[in-house]
Structure formats: C-alpha cells, structure tokens
Amino acid sequence: MQFLWPQFLWLLLALPLLVGLYVLLLRRKKKMAVRYASLAIVKEAMGVRQQMRRHVPPVLFLLSMAALLVAAARPVAVVTLPSNQQTIILAMDVSGSMRATDVQPNRLVAAQNAAKSFLQELPRHVKVGIVAFAGSAQVAQLPTVNREDLVTAIDRFQLQRATATGNAIVISLATLFPDAGIDLESMQSGRERQRGFSIDAEKKQKKEFTPVAPGSYPSAAIIMLTDGQRTTGVDPLEAAKLAADRGVRVYTVGIGTVDGETIGFEGWSMRVRLDEETLKAIANKTSAEYFYAGTAQDLKKVYETLSSKLTVEKKETEISALFALAAAALALLSAGLSLVWFNRIL
Questions:
Q1: Cβ proximity of 257 and 272 under 8 Å
Q2: Is the C or the N end of the chain the one with fewer CB within 10 Å?
Q3: Does this model's pTM top 0.90?
C-alpha cells in the first residue's frame, strides 16, 4: 500500500501521547478515589470483567483516530473492482476443419455451446459483437446487449473453406471503431488473396491517430477462437499490431489438433494444424493471454476464465474512504458502548 500524502502519517506519533494522557488520567482518578473508605467495596463489586470493560471504549476511540489519520494520508492499493469493459467482440472460426469430432460433439458445436454459456455469465450491460471468419471475415452480429440476437447469430454459423485470422482481428477492430477509417470493403472483397495484403502498404487507417500503450484501452476486448493456422488474408501479427496500437487486448483461444492432422469430410481431405506460436504472439503483442482447449470441457473452462477476467479488474485505487468509514464505525461503537455500559460518552 502506498500513500499520496505520506507526510500525514507523522501525526500517528500523537497516538502514544494520547495513550500516555489516558494512563495519567487513570492514575489521577485512582489517587482521588483513595480518599473514599468504600473503595475496596466498590472495586470488589466491579470485578475484573467490569474493570476491563471500562478500557474498551477508549481503545476503540484510539483505533478510530488511527484510521482517520491513515485516511488523511490518502492510501492507495491495488483492489479488485467491476470492470469498465463495455464491448467484447467474439471472433469465431467457421472454417471447414471446425467440423472435426476430436472435440465432442464437434469443434464448431463445442465452440457455439461455450460461447452461449459465456454470454450468460457476462453482466447484462456488456455489449457483445460476433465476427465469423474462414476465408474471409464478416460481422455476424453488431455489438448489442440483446443476448437472444447473439445466440441466434451463433446458431447461424455456416462452415466455409480457408482461415483468415488476421482478417478476423481487423474486422473486429473496424466494428469497435467504425469511424476510424479501417476499410471493411477491401477486407471482404478477397483482393488481398490475389496481391498480398499489407496494412502498411494499403494505408488502411485513413485517420491519423497517436498509438497508445498495448492493453491500455479499458472499454473493449477481442476474443478470437480458431482451430487452424492462417491460410489467407492479412498477416495476423500485423493485425495484432493494429490492435496493440489502439490499446485493445486480443485474447486468443486455440481448439483442436496442435501437432497437425489430416481430416477428411465427404470425399475431400485437408491438413490442419493449430498455430499456437502465432496465437501466443498475438496475445503477447496486445498484452492479453492465450488459452488452449483440447476438449469441450476445457473450452467451457476457458470461457469461464475469460468471463471472470473481463468482468472484474485489478486497479490501483485510493481507499481513503474505506479508512474514513472504519474510523466512523469505530467512533460510533466506542460512544455507543460507553453510553450503554456507563451512561456517558467515554
């Protein structure tokens, strides 16, 4: 714990003086009480418990003074608070390999079910958007708080060929920042597959802006789930840099085969491999995290973890009010006990 005004802590040195003053007053009362012949009878009547009770209100009052002085020094601590996250984009892979059954009942259904559970865990005020990507990326649902619309969008997923993880990130960013000049039309046209797409060369950002620290944008985040490696579209690391420059975290979730496997469907086959290295690099570049889900249960746990990460956050916050509240409570308790036990305040 740190203090914004640490010089006020010197006032705590006055507390031992108060203790000394209290002891001095007790001794003076004791000397005055010696004059009364009935002192021994009174002390015997009071008993040890009653004698100890008389010190409780002053001790509580002393503690209240200590808490008040600490509050005056303006303490700052890292505390867990509700997150200011207002918008989350779920970028979900709908490439043909998501039909694989190594994750039961298959990768796509497991991802859909986990995403629906994730929506149920989120606070109702958090907006969620859906981006579906395969060979290209499309906005399946603009950010909304309507969970029914989001579930409907997830249920409408149609499997396609190829995987464009970079496109998914850029489309997600364009959805979060619709006025930033990120060109959706060229991303969806497929021209990048013919001539090699580069964000820098094409100057996709039409509006100048000053890059910020990675992960510093508190109002939005992207969660990208994929089971393969990029086969077309924007370089995902270039797209991750675009997100990092805007302070947006991109949490990546890998599902399915890590070492690589040939999966066949309806007479055709394809080789799929989860590119964990790139997914980790994306998460690292944007100050986020990478998660691997090898089973449907793992995937559900990943989304539960993400839900807790995105709905609460640790922040350095001034906690003077807590100490002031504690001081007030202790002072009131001290006065209350004194009135109840001795019919006086301290």
A1: yes
A2: N
A3: no
